[in-house]
Amino acid sequence: MERREHRCLPKGVLEARPFVGRILVWEGRVVGEGYFSPVLGAEALLLYRELREVEGVRYPVRAETWALVEGKAVPFARGVNLELRVGLSLGEELFR
Fold it and tell me: Is the dihedral of CA 26, 38, 79, 64 positive or negative?
């Protein structure tokens, strides 16, 4: 995947640079993504866990982020989505 430019940035996001990343597919299913993280200063591997379907769209409920440091995967963060909403209208006040 490649993100070349941004049409708009949510408030509070100071910078979001273009990047090239990878979508990870295993046995025909998307299981995560990989990209260089300026926050980590290293390649990051985000693995999706426990996918759930909400209104016909599958979302990861849990995720794990690993940093690739000196050729080894080091755990960095775990996350849980507490609420999923699909097709919400976003007001202009959210964007600059």
Answer: positive
- Between residues 34 and 19, which one has the greater pLDDT? 34
Distance CA 7, CA 16 (A): 11
Alpha carbon distance 92, 96 (integer Å)? 8
Give dist(CA 37, CA 70) in Å, integer.
Answer: 15
Question: Long-range contacts of range 29-37, CB-CB < 8 Å, 24 or more positions apart?
Answer: 33/1, 37/67
82 backbone dihedrals φ, ψ, rounded to 5°: -85, -25
Helices (H), strands (E): how many in the chain?
Answer: 0, 6
Strand 42-54 and strand 72-80: the pairing is unpaired
**pLDDT for 42-92, tens place per residue?**
888 999 988 888 878 888 889 999 998 888 989 989 999 887 777 778 788
Q: How far is CA 45 from the centre of its chain?
A: 10
